[in-house]
Amino acid sequence: MSRGLLDVVNDRDEVVDRATRAEVHRAKLLHRAVHVWVFDGAGRLLLQKRSLSKDSHPGKWDSSCSGHVDAGEGYLESAVRELEEELGLAVKAEDLLELDYVVAGAETDWEFVRLYGLVRNGPFRMEVGEIDELKFYTFDELDTFVQMENDLCARAFRSLLLRHVGELVDLQVRCFSVSHGQGD
Fold this sequence. Notes:
Number of helices: 5
CATH topology: Nucleoside Triphosphate Pyrophosphohydrolase
Distance between the termini: 30 Å
């Protein structure tokens, strides 16, 4: 794994090169990212409000945690790392359930995205400089949120939420089953 570099991929999500984050974003090169949705036991989804100091989507609501997959790193490995870095959650790969795989495009900022989920009630530790706020939203609030306040969401998160807003309860139940050793 090489921190600071990202794998550049082709349209089949196969690694073809490596470049810095700045180069990848400036040239709109295809690359990889992970999003993790943290559900709680009360039927809510944790969202983070991105720091105003972020260079992309500052001050926007986003997935519970998200980030680039570093060069040489796998998607699942990246999700585990991002949970620790952004939320202070130490989890194992088997704690995460893959919920979706999205092909790169404009709506994901040219990222191939793997979405994972898990159930945790906290405590959470926000990464300074990355996150300004954490808040749990009910599924009804998210439905309204995505329809009425779409300019408040990061682009890739909004795309994921639109894909899954009607099945959030099912996704949470699937994640709860995994977290309690009942399988999928």
